[in-house]
């Protein structure tokens, strides 16, 4: 079975055709994503090419399915370019979290994705929080008084504004916030420090993946929350441990993301990877 391994700012994914994915159980996908017993990855991207518009499914390392992934979409767009299915003209991609527009820039190392509209209604995540939006609301987690803003990019995000970013706190509290009862489908988590009106620094805890070096939808959500709160302007550089993404806003919180993609390898998986697993 053939997999293609890419990363976007250190948020790495395996890509495979749906004819390969259809042979795999959810347990086997989790094994493939394991960094010791499998190839290792922050998730699996499944290319569904039997429709006129390319369709992407996104499976997290814990086997859960995500509605959208920003780095995943940039990687998928680059993969479609590498296999010659698209050129440099913009094209549409369908995801569970909605249709997006992608463009692979010259040289294929930069990809632009119009990620759709940021939504602030708790019901969009979903989250069981009263009101039309949940902006800078108090959340007590692990004895810490936090200020949370909820955003949907098609997938759910809980954005925590802090004075000073502490990545250890992201690792310490991320999993507890991810699984709070107010998030029936769990949530992605970002801790955000506003550097100035055009720069933010974020730490990421991903739903179904844990701490990651970068996240596209998290960057969009964090920048959108800070814009909604009036802390940033229409163009924001998001600084993450894995690198930076350029986020820009148009209209009513329509979010565009531009950033790099690199191919690492194509990998043929040996069936022995699954030896000893329950049938
Ligand atoms: N784990 C996320 C999906 C991947 C998000 C991240 N890798 C990105 O680049 O947006 C979720 O369950 O919503």
From TrEMBL:
This protein's name: Diaminopimelate epimerase
Family to which the UniProt record says this protein belongs: Belongs to the diaminopimelate epimerase family.
Assembly and partners are described as: Homodimer.
InterPro entries recorded: DAP_epimerase_DapF
What EC designation does it have? 5.1.1.7
Task: Report which gene this protein is encoded by.
Answer: dapF
Subcellular compartments? Cytoplasm
Protein keywords: Amino-acid biosynthesis, Cytoplasm, Isomerase, Lysine biosynthesis
A Pfam family hit? DAP_epimerase
């Amino acid at each position: 079975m053939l997999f293609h391994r890419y990363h976007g700012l250190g948020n790495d994914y395996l890509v495979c055709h749906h004819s390969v994915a259809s042979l795999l159980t959810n347990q086997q996908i989790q094994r493939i994503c394991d960094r010791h017993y499998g190839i290792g990855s922050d998730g699996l991207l499944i290319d569904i090419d039997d429709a006129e518009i390319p369709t992407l499914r996104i499976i997290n390392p814990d086997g859960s399915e995500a509605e959208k992934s920003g780095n995943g979409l940039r990687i998928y767009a680059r993969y479609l370019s590498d296999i010659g299915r698209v050129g440099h003209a913009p094209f549409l991609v369908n995801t569970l979290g909605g249709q997006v527009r992608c463009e692979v820039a010259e040289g294929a190392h930069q990809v632009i994705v119009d990620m759709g509209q940021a939504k602030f209604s708790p019901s969009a995540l979903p989250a069981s929080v009263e009101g039309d939006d949940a902006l800078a609301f108090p959340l007590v987690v692990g004895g810490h008084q936090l200020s949370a803003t909820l955003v949907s990019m098609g997938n759910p995000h809980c954005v925590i504004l802090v004075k000073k970013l502490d990545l250890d706190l992201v690792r310490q509290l991320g999993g507890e916030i991810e699984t709070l009862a107010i998030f029936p489908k769990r949530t992605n988590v970002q801790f955000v420090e506003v550097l100035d009106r055009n720069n933010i620094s974020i730490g990421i805890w991903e739903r179904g993946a844990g701490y990651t070096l970068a996240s596209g939808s998290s960057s969009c959500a964090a920048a959108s929350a800070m814009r909604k709160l009036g802390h940033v302007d229409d163009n924001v550089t998001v600084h993450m441990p894995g690198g930076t993404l350029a986020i820009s806003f148009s209209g009513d919180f329509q979010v565009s993301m531009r950033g790099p993609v690199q191919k690492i390898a194509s990998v043929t998986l040996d069936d022995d990877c699954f030896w000893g697993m329950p049938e």
